[in-house]
Design goal:
The complex is a heterodimer of chains A (118) and B (663).
Chain A (H helix, E strand, L loop, with lengths): L1 H21 E5 L11 E14 L4 E7 L6 E6 L12 E9 L2 E4 L5 E2 L2 H4 L3
Parallel strand pairs in A: 1-2, 4-6
Antiparallel strand pairs in A: 2-3, 2-5, 3-4, 5-6, 5-7
Chain B lengths: L1 H28 L2 H30 L6 H6 L6 H6 L5 H23 L4 H25 L22 H16 L1 H12 L6 H32 L9 H26 L3 H24 L5 H6 L3 H21 L16 H32 L3 E4 L1 H21 L10 H7 L1 H16 L6 H32 L3 H11 L1 H25 L2 E7 L4 E4 L2 E12 L3 E12 L2 E13 L4 E5 L1 E5 L4 E9 L5 E8 L3 H18 L3 H14 L6
Antiparallel strand pairs in B: 2-10, 3-4, 4-5, 5-6, 6-7, 8-9, 9-10
Helix pairs in contact in B: 1-2, 1-6, 2-5, 2-6, 5-6, 5-7, 6-8, 7-9, 8-9, 8-11, 9-10, 9-21, 10-11, 10-14, 11-13, 14-15, 15-18, 17-18, 18-19, 18-20, 19-20, 20-21
Classes of the chains: A alpha+beta (118), B alpha+beta (663).
């Protein structure tokens, strides 16, 4: 009985925590329109990578993994080994004046060899 | 050769199918000879799986690229050690490893228990057979490691991040843990099927659970150390779903190891224990599923994966089937006794269990929520570090405190007054530690300060227990202090080994708190000859070196390190360029201070113009985490060590109880 009641309370708490403040929405470039809050952006790196991640910022373009919509990204912070054109990455930040301004050190490459069926 | 491997796996499939069908029929109709034959089929299945595994190992060593698996995961210049570790570097190989370990565990469990717990084992065999059947089916039909092709000139090589000594030990240890949880699960189901509601299945599988749990724990720590050294972002645990995959079954098994003691001592929590073992086993399946199905990256890749849907179906089958069985046997599982007081040993165990399960469920939710959200709302969500860190504090800190309280509280009921008396010393130690640390400036992190005070409290109670025990032992039997001390442990391995494990967890907590709550990071772009300061350290970028490694070009920035004016030698950081794999990987520089447990951790991003961007972390006490691994292993070994006295006690107990009548 004690266990059950505690479990029930916990379930409610969990739902609350995750719905109210737990997760950050994860979006593709095509879904960015009109979003001003903090989001995680997932996409494929295309075009040319310019700039310096430790000075004015690394600049590159993210495209929908399956689609055509793109958005320019500016990012500062550490750059993973696997970051290069053609990789799927995700990065957190928010859209400002048409450019996605990333939060420092949030760039993560999705490493296909680690999870995916080979 | 590939034919032999394929044939051996088909034989395994047939044998485990036989173990399931014939075993179930024999147990149901009580056919003794048929039951024995089903057991032998399970033993033989280990033999055939071993043959298949050896075929794969031989193909790896001989660089036989006509095997698709070998070509995809190795190359000619890959060192032999990593070539063998490629066995579990890919999906098909790791499924084969699962099957090999499972049949190995099954064979050993049957051999060791078929005399002492005969009526249980007849029902355990079909359960083990059913689990093995699933994995045998996967490696025969869905993802065979023995697919062939026209031989290419060279293989694709192994993922560079797996080319690390830790990756040779980490995955097999995790699998040893994942798969090992099958044994207590199978015995629990076997006991229910045989309508035996006593604690026999727990006694028979206690050591198996411990082995699996120890392997999971050590494997997890090795993985953390690997991430620390190889992934190169400055941490050791990122709450990545793949890491959580191993943490969740470990936490569930920890809860199980504690709650079974209540059933052994007081006959309570029978349903809870069965549920916990189902939970732990399902989580180990879920963990394998997470790392192998691609569901983490997106639902889309999940539906493309060959094994994902099968796995999900099997997990559902296991959960629903075993829950249905528990429900059917519910009347048998009624407790003999009730909880008498909320201040008692039983109660603290119960709190410990609730906290551990709550922590496991929050982690599970963090892993599952993004997937569910994508499936239901079509919008993926990421659950980040703050979520996990928050719940680790909310549930982890009380757990730490309970670890100090639990062992000293009396069974059945204890008075608050006697508790306060018992805890005078540990409480004093904890308060003193807290105040001293506060004076030293540890108040910059409140959770860190609480963690340290609680740690001091737990260490205080553990020390108190050892001192009191040794003193009592010496008063009873005389002799020297060291003699009394070792006698004390030898006569009560479970209890004192458990305390050693507790001490390891405290070390872990201190290490985690130190390195996450009190670490610092400094960064700068330096030309050669320039210096960066980090804490008490000063690092001067001296030179850039390039050299050829076995299968990679190694580029290193060399830095001279000094602390408070003392020369500490050099640290190297940079990157490796892997030729065959055409990838680069960051190689961090670490200087450990073995006296203070502090690490200087350097990441270098090298620029074409010869300058480099350095990130320098100072991580206090981080080495206690690795030390905790050794202490944890020591404690587990103390508990696991064969104990003749305990065996005799159990034998008398079960002889007296007799084999209970069925139905």
């Amino acid at each position: 009985m004690i266990a059950l009641s505690v479990a029930a309370a916990l379930a409610v708490f969990l739902l609350y925590a995750s719905v109210a403040g737990g997760g950050t929405p994860s979006l593709a470039p095509s879904e960015l329109d009109g979003r001003t809050g903090k989001v995680a952006l997932a996409g494929k790196v295309v075009g040319r990578i310019t700039g310096d991640a430790h000075a004015n910022g690394l600049r590159f373009v993210l495209r929908d993994v399956e689609g055509k919509a793109t958005v320019p990204v500016v990012y500062k912070g550490s750059v993973p080994d696997l970051f290069r054109v053609g990789r799927d990455i995700h990065v957190e930040g928010s859209l400002r004046n048409g450019t996605f301004v990333a939060l420092p050190d949030t760039l993560v490459t999705k490493c296909p060899s680690k999870y995916a069926p080979e | 050769m590939p034919e032999l491997g394929r044939a051996a796996l088909v034989a395994t499939l047939g044998l485990v199918l036989y173990a399931l069908v014939a075993g179930a029929y024999a147990a149901w109709r009580r056919k003794r000879r048929l039951a024995l034959s089903a057991q032998n089929a399970l033993l033989a299945a280990f033999g055939t799986t071993l043959v298949a595994s050896l075929v794969l190992v031989a193909a790896l060593i001989r660089h036989d690229f006509s095997f698709v698996y070998v070509a995809d995961h190795t190359s000619r210049e890959l060192p032999t050690g990593y070539t063998i570790s490629a066995f579990w570097g890919g999906q098909e190989g790791s499924l084969l490893l699962w099957l090999l370990l499972l049949t190995g565990y099954a064979a050993a469990a049957v051999l060791l228990n078929r005399r002492s717990a005969r009526d249980l084992v007849v029902w355990v065999v079909p359960v083990l057979g059913a689990v093995a059947l699933f994995f045998a089916f996967l490696v025969v039909v869905v993802a065979t490691p023995f697919a062939t092709q026209t031989t290419p000139a060279d293989g694709a090589g192994l993922n560079p991040s797996l080319q690390n000594p830790y990756m040779m030990a980490h995955p097999p240890l995790l699998y040893l843990g994942f798969v090992g949880l099958t044994v207590p699960f199978a015995f629990a189901m076997g006991a229910l099927l045989a309508r035996r509601a006593d604690e026999r299945w727990i006694v028979a599988t206690r050591r198996w659970t411990l082995v699996a749990w120890t392997a999971l724990g050590i494997g997890q720590l090795l993985g953390a150390h690997w991430a620390y050294e190889e992934v190169g972002w400055g941490g050791y645990y990122a709450w990545d779903p793949v890491e959580n995959a191993a943490l969740m079954p470990w936490l569930a098994a920890t809860a199980f190891l504690h709650s079974v003691m209540i059933q052994e001592k007081r006959g309570m929590l029978k349903v809870w224990n069965v549920l916990l073992v189902i939970f732990a086993f399902s989580l180990s399946l879920f963990g394998t599923f997470l790392t192998r199905s691609g569901i983490v990256s997106s639902i889309h890749s999940f539906t493309q994966s060959s094994i994902g849907p099968w796995f999900l179906g099997f997990i559902c089958l296991v959960v629903l089937g075993s829950l249905a069985l528990v429900l059917a046997r519910l009347p048998l599982l009624r407790a003999r006794t009730k909880l008498e007081s909320l201040v008692s040993r039983e109660a603290t165990f119960l709190y410990n269990n609730l906290l551990l399960v709550a922590l496991t469920l929050t982690i599970l939710w963090g892993v599952v929520y993004p997937i569910l959200s994508e499936a239901v709302r079509g919008e993926s969500v990421t659950v980040g570090r703050p979520y996990y860190d928050f719940f680790l504090r909310v549930f982890g800190l009380p757990l730490l405190l309970l670890m100090g309280i639990g062992p000293l509280v009396a069974w059945r009921r204890a008075s608050v007054r006697s508790l306060l008396l018992t805890f005078t010393w540990p409480l004093g130690v904890a308060l003193g530690t807290g105040l001293v640390l506060l004076a030293l400036g540890a108040g910059s992190s409140i959770p860190g300060l609480i963690a340290y005070s609680f740690s001091a409290f737990v260490l205080g109670t553990i020390a108190l227990e050892f001192v009191r025990g040794t003193r009592a032992r010496r008063a009873l039997a005389g002799g020297s202090w060291p003699r009394a001390f070792s006698d004390l442990i030898a006569r009560n391995r479970r209890r004192y080994g458990g305390y050693v494990v507790h001490a390891a967890i405290v070390l872990l907590a201190i290490g985690i708190a130190g390195s996450s709550a009190y670490d610092t990071v400094d960064e700068a772009r330096l030309a050669q000859g320039q210096t960066i300061a980090a804490g008490d350290y000063r690092l001067t970028y001296r030179s850039l070196e390039e050299r050829a490694g076995a299968n990679a070009t190694e580029l290193r920035a060399v830095l001279d390190v000094s602390r408070n004016g003392d020369d500490l030698g050099t640290v190297e950081a940079g990157k490796n360029g892997y030729t065959a794999e055409r990838q680069v990987s960051t190689e961090v520089g670490i200087r450990s201070d073995l006296v203070t447990g502090e690490d200087l951790f350097v990441i270098a991003e090298l620029n074409p113009d010869g300058t480099a961007y350095f990130r320098v972390f100072v991580k206090p006490l981080v080495n206690l985490i690795w030390l905790a691994g050794l202490v944890f292993l020591l404690g587990s070994l103390i508990v696991l060590w064969p104990d003749a006295r305990e065996q005799r006690r159990l034998a008398t107990r079960y002889a007296a109880a007799g084999i209970p009548a069925r139905r």
